[in-house]
Amino acid sequence: MLTCFLPLLLAPSCVSAVTQVPLSVDSDAYKWDIDRPPHPNATGHLIFDTISSLLQHWPNTKNYNGHSIVPGAIPAGTLLYHGRTDPEPPSGREWLALDPEFARIFCSREPIDEDPLPECWFLTLVTTRPVRVLYFDGTSAAKIPDGTIDAQDILSWGKVWPERSSFAWDYLRMNKLCDWAGVRNYSVRLYEQGTVSFSQLRAERLDPHRANSFLHASEWHDAFPGELRIKLDLSQLVSLYDTDLAPSLVEQRFNVSRAEHRLLGINQEDIDRVLARLGAIQDTPPSSKSGIDWLSLFQVIRDRYAKRLQVLQSTLKDASGSRAFHLVSTMLAPYTLDSAAPGNPGEDDNSWVLPIFKLCATTHTSFAATRVAFSTPSERLLLNAVQETLHEICRTLVMIYAEGEGGSVGKWKAEVDRLNNWLDWSEWLRCEPACSWDETCFLFGPPFAKKYWNLTAPRCIRAFPPYTFDAFE
Ligand SMILES: *[C@@H]1O[C@H](CO)[C@@H](O)[C@H](O)[C@H]1NC(C)=O
Ligand SMILES: *[C@@H]1O[C@H](CO)[C@@H](O)[C@H](O)[C@H]1NC(C)=O
Ligand SMILES: *[C@@H]1O[C@H](CO)[C@@H](O)[C@H](O)[C@H]1NC(C)=O
User: Fold this and answer.
1) In this structure, which residue's CA is closest to atom 8 in ligand 3?
2) Helix, strand or coil for residue 233?
């Protein structure tokens, strides 16, 4: 069980203040050492965050370079859209969008202000049976050299190739992806199935109305549950944060901020392993034998802690120790055993909180952990991710709880700041003050030009003229 718990612990030994003997990384005392922070190269929290953010626009803008490749299906009856400037229905492979506001962008072409305006031909398709797809997270539709298409590069070229990020390579990349998918029974022929309409729409400049409606449409899928029209099979997901699958990326990420993590620098051995894993994805998902609903499990953890950790962090900014202690004891209440109580006051020994720590860290996962034998490798990765994440949340909370109401507020603040930085949940990035009802809080990153990017400060944009945003100027 322990190998599954912390596969990344590389530190050979450490000394516990309690026992004063070197501890093995496998020992229970090491695992539950309240003073031991997470391993700097461990990725469980990153996997937890990326997987619980799949198909959501906001977190995938914040961390725009994708690290997950997940098989899924689009159910029958789902509408898909394609915009073009000529009246010829596509004869080959083409890009489709799930929202007409995105497809509408392609009814124009450079230069944007061409006169006369190009015609807008709009194709609406419907899936007539479930469509098998492969989902790439991050802002994977943005064709830029900064990392958004690294994961697609691995599949299309067999290497990360930023020089091929320009539009000139777009259709060749798509064809390579479709070639790969076509022989593996992914759905690459939609057009012949269900055409709802192919019509000429009124030509209109992108800027400002259509460009702004594009921004507002993104908001519909900003937060959990995100884009519901794609049903992902998490039991077969592939994560490039998986350090068994892609160990060469550990070094590439070292001392690099999260938003800049990418797949550039992955070695050939790891690429081969990733491709083999992708190639082994089963047609019909027979693989989840564990029965665990990972998506709900992850979301329960986020629901339980996202808001309260943010309130805790703000409370500590005001140096309010007794309010902070109250919040911590509220979060720990389901795990605060009557039998766990401090020994002698003033005694420098935290062992009395260990039962609370363990209960807090394992209650949500103990059943899933018994299912390891029935799980896929992807599910074991998910289990480890939620275990590592909970372990650190609970460790930080019990550290504060153990000190009691008169503890060091300065230390608590540093620990909660550290925890929240480490978790890096996108719920905490908001427009402050909140936007008005006729505005959308928007986070500017790819696919917009770099001069508009500001991934630390989202801003409110108006739904009506006078617009506050002019993306295509
Ligand atoms: C593709 O589907 C067909 C028909 O369902 C099946 O016989 C074949 O084994 C599948 N191929 C792959 C690679 O899964
Ligand atoms: C983390 O990874 C870096 C880069 O590979 C390595 O230099 C460092 O020693 C690792 N840290 C630990 C504590 O293992
Ligand atoms: C990189 O290392 C320097 C020096 O240790 C440190 O100050 C900085 O915060 C690190 N940056 C990141 C992104 O980890």
Assistant:
1) 255
2) coil
Q: What is the pTM of this model?
A: 0.91
Pairing verdict, β 14-15 and 454-462: unpaired
For residues 267 and 337, membership in a common domain is answered with: no
Measured between alpha carbons, how far is 338 from 357 in angstroms, rounded to an integer? Answer: 14
Q: What is the pLDDT of residues 264-284, one digit of tens each?
A: 999 999 999 999 999 999 877
User: Separation of 255 CA from ligand 3 center, angstroms?
Assistant: 5
d(CA 299, CA 237): 17
CA 255 to ligand 3: nearest atom = 14
Identify whether residues 232 and 351 lie together within a single domain.
Answer: no
- Domain end marker among 428, 446, 468: 428
* Residue 361 lies inside a defined structural domain of this protein: yes
Tell me which residue has its CA closest to atom 8 in ligand 1: 185
- Whether residue 326 sits in one domain with residue 198: no
Report the percent of the chain where pLDDT is more than 70. Answer: 90
Tell me how far apart the alpha carbons of residues 296 and 286 are, in angstroms, rounded to a whole number: 20
CA of 431 to the centre of ligand 3 (A): 27
Separation of CA 9 and ligand 1 centre (Å): 41
Which residue, 408, 428, 448, sits at the end of a domain?
A: 428
Interatomic CA distance for residues 194 and 313, integer angstroms? 52
Confirm whether 116 is domain-assigned: yes
The number of C-alpha atoms within 13 Å of 39 and in the hemisphere containing its C-beta is: 20
- Whether 450 maps to a domain, the answer reads no
CB of 75 closer than 8 Å to CB of 69: no
Instruction: Specify if 60 maps to a domain.
Output: no
Domain that holds residue 348: 294-428
The number of domains in the chain is 2
